[in-house]
């Protein structure tokens, strides 16, 4: 990495135009990464299972965050027409493409845990 290259370009650069910024816009939020990690680890997960696993998240926040991830095509929601209602969540192919990044974050955390 050449630091001068970045110093020369920064005057005309715009962070909002970068892939980093776009990726961050999809995964930023208090629980988005946790939900993605949960789905990466367990595959198909029901709403109440996810709520129990995450713990501190409210039902309202979990629901809203899942809707955002679904809108961004990272999470798939499957609703079954039965009583009581059954809803399952899983990663889409687009969401699965984040798995290498999540894996690297896990590895980094394990190596650098204090």
From TrEMBL:
Keyword Transcription annotated: yes
Family matches, as InterPro entries: HTH_HxlR (IPR002577), WH-like_DNA-bd_sf (IPR036388), WH_DNA-bd_sf (IPR036390)
Alphabetical list of Pfam families matching this protein: HxlR
Keywords, ordered alphabetically: DNA-binding, Transcription, Transcription regulation
Q: Which domain of life is it from?
A: Bacteria
Q: Domain HTH hxlR-type spans what residues?
A: 9-114
Enumerate the transmembrane spans.
Answer: none
Q: Name one GO molecular function term.
A: DNA binding
| PANTHER family assigned | TRANSCRIPTIONAL REGULATOR, TRANSCRIPTIONAL REGULATOR, MARR FAMILY
What name goes with this protein? Transcriptional regulator, HxlR family
Please tell me the species this chain comes from: Subdoligranulum variabile DSM 15176
């Amino acid at each position: 990495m050449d630091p001068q290259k970045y110093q020369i370009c920064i005057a005309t650069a715009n962070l909002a135009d970068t892939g980093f910024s776009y990726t961050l816009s999809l995964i930023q939020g208090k629980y988005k990464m946790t939900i993605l990690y949960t789905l990466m680890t367990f595959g198909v997960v029901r709403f109440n299972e996810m709520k129990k696993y995450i713990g501190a998240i409210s039902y309202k926040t979990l629901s809203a965050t899942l809707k955002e991830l679904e809108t961004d095509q990272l999470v798939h929601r499957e609703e079954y027409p039965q009583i009581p209602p059954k809803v399952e969540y899983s990663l889409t192919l687009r969401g699965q493409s984040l798995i290498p990044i999540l894996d690297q974050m896990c590895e980094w955390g394990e190596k650098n845990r204090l």
